[in-house]
UniProtKB/TrEMBL annotation:
Keywords: Aminoacyl-tRNA synthetase, ATP-binding, Ligase, Nucleotide-binding, Protein biosynthesis. The lineage of its organism: Eukaryota, Viridiplantae, Streptophyta, Embryophyta, Tracheophyta. This is asparagine--tRNA ligase. It catalyses: tRNA(Asn) + L-asparagine + ATP = L-asparaginyl-tRNA(Asn) + AMP + diphosphate + H(+). NCBIfam families: asnS (TIGR00457), PRK03932.1 (NF003037). It comes from Urochloa decumbens. One of its GO terms (biological process) is translation. Residues 210-443 form the Aminoacyl-transfer RNA synthetases class-II family profile domain.
């Protein structure tokens, strides 16, 4: 895809060239008794929109009226050209030759209106306001830490309650010595976020590609060497991206991090390797990961490989339908492939509701990136963009649809294929330092039984 900002900047130089553009219609109209549609398409790369001309027939059966409502998502291929002499347009425009994908909008239900201009108009539409060109000028954003929805649907969430002081700053102890909590503040139950993903999806479906980096919280009762109750996650989210694109992005991101570490932190890495000398050393691991292609296997293949391993090797037996434990993940990377491994297409039962259901109806378009010594470093997926299936997946997972209404709006209004992942920052530090336990790579670890110091 070519970004709208690049087209508008280099306009004249690009005239005559082919381009694929993906984005959302900010204004559209039909003209010449349905012979043409004129669209203004924005992809969030700049405040301005690209003028697009679609001739009836270019849409491969897509009626022009389906392209014009505000908020419609489009993936279009065509030729860039200077506006014809006498036209009011000033900049290069896209003449569409092929409509690749359309995510429709029911104009009557779409809550954004052209007439809305003031910030207060969007305050109750915070999940859609990134689709206006008012608020944002770059693609990183800060996620909220307080939410009402459980992104992973696993119920491993911390609840937020207020501790109202009753004047004088005293803590409101009750007679039995416990503290009186009130839940009135948000007027509903609120939690600490387990992931910024759902919010990132709202932004990706307006700005094309975004990332968030922030603290996340999990009330998982796992006393392992790689789980924390409070950790940081880097979460990119990319519109118009498939699971393949997601895997490519994750692989090149990890390789980039390893290369940067080797280039800029060599002295620190040598210091750590000397102090905690182990084989392979952290530097050897970073070199390996930065320079080899990652292996890619399906969950099914992974299970078959692991089932073939001599009995008694694993504490937990493996069979189809069971999530990989860290011993399995490490075995694949350290004993079988000797490099990072991306495992994809997991059974839907062991993955969250938002992952896209595959055609086999049994697996979802998930991927985990596993690295030596750590196991899972990244978890990601292609997202379910089909409204009916997503709703069913939410209820089938035993969740209530209500806290996810705003999330469903993404599928309802100009839905697009999109994918993303989360990289545990502390797990990356664990990998980079070659240390054994994640509690040693964060200044103040939070885990079961430890909330102080
Ligand atoms: O696989 P997870 O649970 O995926 C998500 O949260 C998705 N919503 C991410 C996304 O698609 N945007 O977590 C992602 C990564 C894991 O691969 C792991 O590196 C790290 O976050 N992680 C933890 N790190 C430390 N302690 C924990 N309890 C962790 N849980 C997950
Ligand atoms: Mg995971």
């Amino acid at each position: 895809r070519t970004r709208v900002s690049a087209i508008l900047e280099d306009g004249d130089a690009l005239a005559g060239q082919r381009a694929v553009v993906g984005g959302w219609v900010v204004a559209g109209r039909e003209q010449g008794r349905g012979a043409f549609a004129f669209l203004a398409v924005s992809d969030g790369s700049c405040p301005a929109a690209l003028q697009v001309v679609v001739e009836a027939g270019a849409g491969a059966g897509v009626p022009l009226a389906r392209l014009t409502p505000m908020g419609t998502s489009v993936l279009l291929e065509g030729r860039l050209q200077r506006p014809p002499a006498g036209s009011s347009a000033e900049r290069v425009e896209l003449r569409v030759e092929r409509v690749i994908e359309v995510g429709e909008v029911d104009a009557a239900a779409y809550p954004l209106r052209k007439s809305m201009r003031k910030p207060e108009n969007f305050r109750d539409l915070v999940h859609l306001r990134a689709r206006t060109n008012t608020f944002f000028d770059n693609n990183g954003f800060l996620q909220p830490m307080i939410t009402t929805s459980d992104c992973e649907g696993a119920g491993e969430i911390f609840q937020v309650t207020t501790l109202f002081s009753q004047g004088g700053g005293t803590i409101p102890y009750k007679d039995d010595g416990t503290i009186a909590f009130e839940d009135d503040f948000f007027k509903r139950q609120a939690f600490l976020t387990v992931s910024g993903q759902l919010q990132a999806e709202n932004y990706a479906c307006a700005l094309s590609s975004v990332y968030t980096f922030g603290p996340t919280f999990r009330a998982e009762n796992s006393r392992t060497s790689r789980h924390l109750a409070e950790f940081w996650m880097v979460e990119p989210e990319i519109a118009f991206a498939s699971l393949q694109d997601d895997m490519n992005c994750a692989e090149s991101y990890i390789q980039y991090l390893c290369k940067e570490l080797l280039e800029y932190c060599e002295k620190d890495l040598e210091f750590i390797d000397n102090k905690f000398a182990e084989s392979p050393t952290a530097i050897q691991c970073l070199k390996l990961v930065s320079s080899t292609l990652f292996e890619r296997i399906s969950y099914k293949q992974a299970v078959n490989i692991l089932k073939g391993v001599e009995e008694g090797t694993f504490d937990k037996a493996i069979e189809w339908g069971i999530d990989l434990a860290s011993e399995h993940e490490r075995y694949l990377t350290e004993k079988i492939f000797m490099r990072p491994v991306i495992v994809y297409n997991y059974p839907k039962e062991i993955k969250p509701f938002y992952m896209r259901l595959n055609d086999d109806q049994k697996t979802v378009a998930a991927m985990d990136v596993l690295v030596p010594k750590v196991g899972e470093l990244i978890g990601g997926s292609q997202r379910e963009e089909r409204l009916d299936i997503l709703k069913k997946r939410i209820t089938d997972s035993g969740l209530s649809v209500e806290p996810y209404e705003w999330y469903l709006d993404l599928c309802w209004f100009g839905s697009v294929r999109h994918s993303g992942f989360g990289m545990g920052f502390d797990r990356m530090v664990l990998f980079a330092t070659g240390l054994e336990n994640i509690r040693d790579v964060i200044p103040f670890p939070r885990c079961p039984g430890r909330a102080d110091l």
